Amino acid sequence: MSSKKQGFVPYANEADVISVGKLMIENRLDRITVSGDVDLTADDFGLAHARRLHEVLGEIVAKLEAMTLPAKLPPAAVGEVDNPFN
Asked: Tens digit of pLDDT for each residue in 11-64?
């Protein structure tokens, strides 16, 4: 299990990434992206993973509850750029 990245504040930047097992939690300004997997095994190691995941999700929920939220975010703007390899 990875240790907590110091200063992880949900929705604060586009850079922070923390992990719990192989689960990656990526910070963004308008969303948190969770990808990968983690096994919450019935042992001390699994309990540590579960506690860390619970802590991070609790921080995310608390931040969301403190914000004024829209019903739904608009889709992200998607654009095209020239291929730099041409």
From this structure: 999 999 999 999 999 999 999 999 999 999 999 999 999 999 999 999 999 999
Buried b (16+ CB within 10 A) or exposed e, 43-81: eeeeeebeebbeebeeebeeeeeeeeeeeeeeeeeeeee
**pTM metric for this prediction:** 0.79
In terms of Cα–Cα distance, which of 11, 14, 28 is closest to 66? 11
DSSP code at position 8: -
Torsion sign, CA atoms 30, 36, 39, 44: negative
